[in-house]
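In keeping with the milestone schedule agreed at the kick-off meeting, the structural modelling team has produced records for the first pair of proteins. Each record is given below as a sequence line and a structure-token line. The laboratory manager (R.T.) confirmed that both were archived under the project's standard naming scheme.
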Amino acid sequence: MTFDLIAHTDRAISTANEIRNGQLLAFFDFSYPFFPGYSWNLFYPPLENFIYSGLYFISNDLNISLKLLTLFIITISFIHSYIAFIYLNVNKEKALLLAVLFSCSIYQIDNIFVRGALPESVAISFIPLFIASLAKEDNDKKTVLMMSYAVAGILLSNIPLFLCSGIVGFIYFLLVPKKILLLVKSFTFAILLSAFFFLPLVYSIHNQVFPIMATNWFQNMSEKSIGFYDLISGEKISNGKLSSMALGIGWPLFIMFLYSLKETVNKKIIYIITTLAVLITCAANYSFLPEILYSINKIQYTWRLIPFLIFFVLIIISNNRKVKSIHLVASVLTISLMSTWMSVKSVNNFDITESNFRGPKNTVFTDYTLENTKKLTEYKKELVCISLTDMKYQNIPYSTSRGKYGLPYFSIHTDKEMKCRLPVMAYTALSIDGNRDVVDGYLTYKTTVGDNLIQTEYSKNFLYSLILGILLSVLSIIFFLFLVFYKGRNNKNNQET
């Protein structure tokens, strides 16, 4: 299994287990190896995990869950692509084949079967609707709803691609200034639709430092950029830090693109394709940018712009009347062979189970551990406590169970007043009986003489942000559905009369 796939499978297992333990929101994993209370779901977008962990929760079989998730990603990518091309007035037969070319592009196949970057693959499936909304001349209600849906899907799947969509939208705005209102409306509406995730995320990253957030990715972008030949060819990269990956457009699409340039083409889309190709391949270190723009580095790799580039290329191809269905079928077959022969090595079947890869002897992820958090090797039986009278350390046995919201509580008996470090990572979302005292990155509790019952709670401000986020999302979804179905039906009736 690849590093990314291990991470996303670990997250699915964590979520399913925490739900079984009564933590329905499953923000925190209190049995996480070495870092109890670690959170995947507070910081990483939820859409892919809703599906993966949901399938695993129901089936208790990771192999079946992963296969169904893969099928879902390719299917939804195809459906969105087909809708996007129909929206751009491409005939149905051509739209069908172009949708196959996008949903089974070399980049997407490598993403799913080689890198195992499943949330990014889900986000990619929304890109066609986002670009179709940009490319359409109209800025009507339907376009706003389509783009809002697409941007919300990207935001709830993968934050780097959400940032990429912002970059692409900005470039398009520079070429077509009238799109600014569409972009502002759509991104605002998308954030409201996603508020149940977005608001708790914003609250939780404020005044906290995590390894993945503190990293300056600009240098990494430069070191792991893709060359122009690899971008256009789609061949397996033979050397460098991207060795064995296949991320490019592919010869069939590139040749049809060049052929289409002989026809009358949308120059604005050509400018965007050129700009994206330069950004992807220039290998610049953008650390010189002002600090206010540093959030851009969280896209991590400029080659994440390639799916956007591919769909723009397909739009140019779709407008070429000389490109027939037979040419598209040949391209589908050729790219399928390239994906099979160049991108994927033949490997033996691997039975994915919770017991054979998750645990302290396997990969333990620290992307969202708090800065300077101590790695705990023993914490499941005893708490490390310090006496408040003689300042001596002592290990005290404890028991634990789940209480309100599925958060843990601890029972401990001490013969004197002590300060005990609890196996609960000290995110600002959590507190102990309303207090937040932190040691080694974990919450602590001051015991009294005798029996102590210690309850983990959501902090009040986090709970407010969560409730507000859920409320905004519910109201926004209701409003979205109202605009799609009720208003849409009324408009259709008015047109018929």
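The second protein of the pair:
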Amino acid sequence: MLIFVVTALQCTLEGGERICQKEIYCKPWKFTSSDGRFEMDFLPILDRSACLDCKLIVSDQHQVFGRMSGMAVLDDGTKIEIKDVLCFAEKVHNRY
């Protein structure tokens, strides 16, 4: 099992749309790290979402499952290419 932890991640969709728009979670995503060491395309299959707004407590969650393909460069310079790896990405906003 490979686990990638990416910091300083910028997420955009095809055409430069931002992922904060609720209706676009199931469109293709592109993950790009600021240093260019993580370049992945993510094709969503399912958006598992939940939304609760009780004024004092707010929870808006999108756990998007799909397939990721692309390239990552490790600290030692080794390039790893993956194709169609099943994974998930999520965006969660909670306020308590």
